[in-house]
């Protein structure tokens, strides 16, 4: 069994080293190494440009504003969707998750079709503005707050709040002094993750903001692809890593506090969700107004979340002054610029996503299994914590950096007489690198929740270590593994940043082809892009809806 644990650590670390650390270092090294020697003058050069400070300021501003709005709207949503019991709650939970798993290109296309001149909200003149980007980021990250906070709120023991009410506290005061402090670790963790996703947004910002309202992520893409300034791209990659490392550190500490708080709370099966109806004989000032206010806010947000998606479908059916399926009929026709049909790109995306999901499941599952252990020695606990943090790094490094790093480093890697850049094998690998942190975050909370006494009892009854692992850990984590497969598949299906560099011209994935169609002039190309976006959105939403049914209730994890 010792050999298994060595392999469980060595295999993921080797995967991360070869397909993440090496390409990133190769990319950054191109910017900081001149004539074989280290040259850090790029920092002074890049930071002397007003454009750099404007981009960094825009990145921090849009991430901070979008995160604040997501938290303000998400906390009431977490209360309604996780603390209250009402018919249709599960369906609405799945609905609010759909925006998060949508490909970023689709989110950008959906919002642009809503805000362009002639769109339902075109009279607001928000197309290509900072406000449009912030709105799209809130749309994308609302589910992060709802599910992160709701997962903990679902587990909170209501007796503390009830005791405060019995002592005369008003509903608002009981929430502010009892419930809110208990939820703070989950709120901070969700806000940190939301800030992370906002700060590293790529496809959405690229579609909505163009070159006027960029982020550090889009600027790395611009400097790499348009200006060929690898030194500037390397400096910006380091800047982004510093920003995101801070967000990951904050999220990690908040997550640890949340897990400790959940360990002290009542078991999930003993905490019954409250109902929307006032209990007979209870006073009228029992917080019913607060519940109705939260329900109203949540209902409004859900309607706003549906608006871009519904409009996307309607605009895809618009043909000239009438309606029809012309744009969907064109999905099978190869484009003039790419020579590839949308259905062909969809098949490529599905094949690639299957391979990427299998890779992410193996690597992320092994990481979650190792990190879920509880070593007795302090050195062992620090090593486990370090491994967990190590595999969150792909969330903090630009996908553009990873993609271009593959191009730089995968020509005859390790002296092998093969050029992996032309083989197409790098696309699923790059997508797996992005999906591994999602797999870890979904499986790890369930494995950590396994009572060690179950393993001890199985061992006492004569089970071998391998059988204990299969019959206890894997059987309990089976549902979370299914959920991880769904989310990893959806994430791979919509990955755009790294894939835009690695996809072969004759075999683009669907997000890459949609971006190409948007850039082509003509109403027909735009209509086909809308129809292709609907197809991609339907695929990801269907996958997530199916995997959502596998979610184990009361796990208390992020998802």
UniProtKB/TrEMBL annotation:
SUPFAM superfamilies assigned to the protein according to its UniProt record, in alphabetical order: MetI-like (SSF161098)
Transmembrane segments: 55-82, 94-116, 128-149, 193-213, 233-251, 287-310, 353-371, 383-408, 428-447, 480-503, 523-546
Pfam family, one: BPD_transp_1
Keywords: Cell inner membrane, Cell membrane, Membrane, Transmembrane, Transmembrane helix, Transport
CDD domains: TM_PBP2
Domain ABC transmembrane type-1 span(s) in chain numbering: 56-251, 346-547
Location(s) in or outside the cell: Cell inner membrane; Cell membrane
Family, per entry: Belongs to the binding-protein-dependent transport system permease family.
Protein name: Iron ABC transporter permease
Organism annotation: Cellulomonas edaphi
């Amino acid at each position: 069994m010792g050999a298994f644990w060595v392999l469980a650590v060595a295999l993921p670390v080797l995967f991360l080293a070869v397909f993440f650390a090496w390409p990133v270092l190769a990319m950054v090294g191109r910017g900081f190494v001149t004539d074989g020697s280290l040259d850090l003058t790029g920092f002074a050069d890049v930071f002397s440009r007003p454009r750099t400070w404007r981009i960094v300021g825009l990145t921090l501003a849009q991430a901070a504003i979008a995160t604040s709005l997501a938290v303000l709207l998400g906390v009431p949503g977490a209360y309604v969707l996780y603390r209250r019991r009402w018919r249709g709650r599960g369906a609405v939970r799945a609905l609010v998750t759909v925006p998060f798993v949508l490909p970023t290109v689709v989110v950008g296309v959906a919002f642009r079709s809503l805000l362009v001149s002639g769109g339902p909200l075109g009279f607001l003149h928000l197309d290509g503005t900072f406000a449009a980007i912030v709105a799209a980021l809130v749309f994308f990250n609302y589910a992060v707050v709802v599910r992160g906070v709701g997962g903990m709120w679902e587990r909170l023991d209501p007796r503390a709040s009830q005791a405060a009410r019995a002592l005369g506290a008003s509903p608002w005061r009981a929430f502010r002094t009892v419930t809110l402090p208990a939820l703070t670790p989950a709120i901070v963790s969700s806000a940190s993750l939301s800030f992370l996703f906002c700060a590293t947004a790529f496809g959405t910002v690229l579609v909505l903001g163009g070159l006027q309202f960029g982020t550090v992520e889009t600027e790395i893409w611009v400097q790499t692809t348009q200006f060929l300034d690898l030194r500037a791209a390397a400096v910006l990659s380091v800047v982004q890593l510093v920003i995101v490392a801070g967000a990951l550190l904050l999220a990690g500490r908040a997550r640890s506090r949340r897990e400790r708080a959940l360990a002290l709370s009542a078991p999930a099966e003993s905490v019954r969700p409250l109902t929307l109806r006032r209990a007979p004989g209870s006073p009228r000032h029992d917080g019913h107004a607060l519940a109705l206010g939260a329900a109203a806010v949540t209902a409004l947000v859900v309607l706003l979340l549906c608006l871009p998606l519904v409009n996307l479908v309607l605009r895809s059916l618009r043909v000239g002054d009438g309606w029809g399926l012309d744009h969907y009929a064109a999905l099978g026709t190869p484009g003039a610029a790419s020579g590839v049909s949308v259905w062909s790109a969809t098949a490529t995306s599905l094949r690639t996503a299957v391979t990427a999901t299998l890779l992410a499941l193996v690597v992320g599952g092994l990481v979650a299994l190792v990190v879920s252990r509880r070593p007795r020695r302090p050195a062992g606990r620090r090593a486990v914590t370090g491994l967990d943090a190590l595999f969150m790094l792909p969330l903090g490094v630009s996908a553009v950096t990873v993609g271009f790093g593959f191009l730089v480093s995968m020509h005859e890697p390790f002296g092998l007489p093969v050029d992996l850049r032309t083989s197409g094998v790098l696309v699923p690998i790059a997508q797996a690198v992005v999906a591994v942190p999602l797999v870890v975050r979904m499986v790890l909370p369930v494995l950590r929740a396994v009572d060690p006494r179950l393993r001890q009892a199985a061992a006492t009854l004569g089970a071998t270590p391998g059988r204990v692992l299969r019959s206890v850990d894997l059987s309990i984590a089976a549902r979370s593994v299914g959920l991880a497969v769904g989310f990893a598949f959806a994430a791979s299906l919509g990955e755009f940043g790294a894939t835009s560099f690695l996809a072969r011209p004759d075999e683009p994935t669907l997000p890459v082809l949609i971006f190409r169609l948007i850039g082509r002039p003509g109403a027909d190309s735009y209509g086909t892009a809308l129809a292709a976006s609907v197809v991609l959105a339907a695929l990801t939403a269907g996958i997530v809806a199916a995997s959502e049914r596998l979610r184990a209730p009361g796990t208390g994890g992020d998802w």
